[in-house]
Amino acid sequence: MTDPTETFLAFSEKLADSSRALLLSAAAEAPRVDLKQDASFVTATDRAVEARLREQIRAAFPDHGIMGEEHGSERLDAEFVWVLDPIDGTAAWVAGIPVYGTLISLAHGGKPLLGVIDLPATAERLTGISGRGAWHNGKPIRCRKGTALSDAYMTSSNPRFVPEADRAPFARLDAAVQFTQYGGSCYSYACLARGRTDLAVDAGFDAYDLFAPTAIIEGAGGIVTDWEGQPLDLGWQGRVIAAGDRALHAAALERLGPRISG
């Protein structure tokens, strides 16, 4: 049986072309912002982009499932499920800070198979197939290797969204690395896949925030798990740690774990 992964990846780039066109068209005007129950931003453009992508998926692959941030889930028990975040970094999008992007992923058997991070403001696109390769504007990329924890450059999202119970372990890790950069949205995960940073650690996330970056980082030779070292699946929510190097990942996990007295 022919492996359809390359066909799926080509289709995911067509989806990214659609989302980029909509985002660039909408970028000229300041959007009206609504607040969701979790106090995060959403705009009409978020909803319009996801609706357009879902239309294209249903037309091309009617037997596939879809999980999206704005319009819910359908057929999550399907063999293949598309996982969509129409604007990752909506607050950055609203402010005109160019770190927002569209995240498109295809899960197979509940695990990330391939992903796209499309960054329209900077005309960048990262693609990846888990365990097989990753690309930045068509050129192969690899994660950075061999960095010690004390020398690591870490990224993290807005600390406001980190649950109270997760702040103490995160603070232990933050104190152990060389530097932590906050607020880069999906661009931070793109930088990790390109070998520009070493760690990305967050909490309070959902599958649609991480499936595309996971496939790309794993394609670039990195590793992505929860804070217990378990892989992500469609039911995952909460805490994530991504690293370019497995030894660094293990060292960071140890810092995030329960502190042993004595």
UniProtKB/TrEMBL annotation:
GO molecular function: inositol monophosphate 1-phosphatase activity; metal ion binding
Superkingdom of source: Bacteria
Gene3D superfamilies, alphabetized: 3.40.190.80, Fructose-1,6-Bisphosphatase, subunit A, domain 1 (3.30.540.10)
Listed cofactors: Mg(2+)
Alphabetized UniProt keyword annotations: Magnesium, Metal-binding
Binding-site list for Mg(2+): E69, D85, I87, D88, D209
Key word Metal-binding present: yes
One of the protein's GO biological processes: inositol metabolic process
Family according to the record: Belongs to the inositol monophosphatase superfamily.
Name the record gives this protein: Inositol monophosphatase
Lineage summary: Bacteria, Pseudomonadati, Pseudomonadota, Alphaproteobacteria, Hyphomicrobiales
